[in-house]
Amino acid sequence: MSRTRTLGQLGIALVVGVLAVGALLAAVRARADDTAARLLDVLQREHAETTTDDSGNGEALDEADLSDLPAPVRRYLERVLPDESRRVQSVRLRQTGAFRLGDADSPWKSMTATQHYTVDPPGFVWDARIDLAPFLPIRVVDAFVGGSGSLEAKLLSVVTVADAPRSPELDEGELARYLSEMVWFPTAFLPGHGVRWEPRNDRSARATLAHRGSTTTVVFHFDENDEVARVTADRWRDTGDGEYERCPWTGQFSDYREVNGVRVPAAAEVAWNLPWVDLPYWRATIDDVEYDPLPTATRRSNTPPGPNPE
User: Fold this and answer.
1) What span, in angstroms and rounded, lies between the C-alpha atoms of 166 and 14?
2) Is the separation of the CB atoms in 61 and 81 below 8 Å?
3) 207 touches 217 (CB < 8 A)
């Protein structure tokens, strides 16, 4: 009888212990989740404080907005924006794809992510889950908020495995990412949002964006459809020892589709162009895009439709 009671007590103790550990892990994970929530809160508060009624929010596209732009940029915006397009101020998109941690021989790991952007001020928060192995996810939060870049990665949302120190190189690198990804909200390329364009040739133009002490330049390459097919830049790359070096970097965009009246790429891939090898490290499809305000007066599906008939 006492043995039965002892086993019963042991079972109860084990259950209580498991529940306690589970509660502790949940609390730790909740605190870890605060990183993305905190950054997003700061981003949205700054956006609310900066955006005013005369900031261009909701204004319809005017022909004069395009007149002084380089020819390939003008053709691109005429291609991807509807005639009655309004300036988007904030964006949320969802991605599904893969991420590579390590060198060119490292395997790709499945990834899902949600990303928030604001146009005024420029900023983003990328909140991703990368599955290193079954039941072993890593949480990555990459951001440019308040003029500062940040990168944090946590195993199981608990154990910190990467936390990039703040630096001018990190700030500039995150601003370069933001500028390159404006293809998903192209009204931000219009005059009035800080992008300075310089012509290169009939199929490319150089864009420069400055914000709070950081300045970055990205070259946009346009294809025969007048859509952005590729972006290139010399970005700061972490060498792994706490130092940074300039390295050629390329982003590829494809499978353009119409979302709320705007043509955006539904697929993308980015890579470091090292002297000895090209190192792709992120590739994804865009599953959903939400704009505020809507670029067109009539709401359409946020989900990119099937393949283009073109």
Assistant:
1) 44
2) yes
3) yes
131 and 109 Cβ atoms separated by less than 8 Å: yes
Q: Which CATH number fits domain 24-292: 3.30.160, 1.10.4100, 1.20.140, 2.50.20?
A: 2.50.20
Question: What is the tens place of the pLDDT at every residue in 141-196?
Answer: 999 999 999 999 999 988 989 999 999 999 999 999 999 999 999 999 999 999 99
How many CB atoms within 10 Å of residue 75? 18
Residues of the chain under the 50 pLDDT cut = 1-28, 53-55, 298-301, 308-310
Residue positions counted in the chain: 310
| In the chain, domain spans | 24-292
d(CA 11, CA 18): 11
List of residues 6+ apart from 145 with CB closer than 8 A: 39, 42, 43, 46, 123, 124, 125
Residue 250: closest CA among 237, 231, 222? 231
Any bridge partners for residue 97, and if so which? 111, 284
User: In sequence order, what E strands does 35-147 have?
Assistant: 90-100, 108-118, 123-133, 136-145
Using CA atoms, how far apart are residues 281 and 53, in angstroms rounded to an integer?
Answer: 40
CB 290 within 8 A of CB 92: yes
Q: Are 295 and 82 in contact (CB under 8 A)?
A: yes
Give the model's pLDDT for residue 30. Answer: 52
**List of residues 6+ apart from 80 with CB closer than 8 A:** 186, 227, 256, 262, 263, 264
Q: CA 172, 159, 284, 298 torsion: positive or negative?
A: negative
204 bridge partner residues: 201, 221
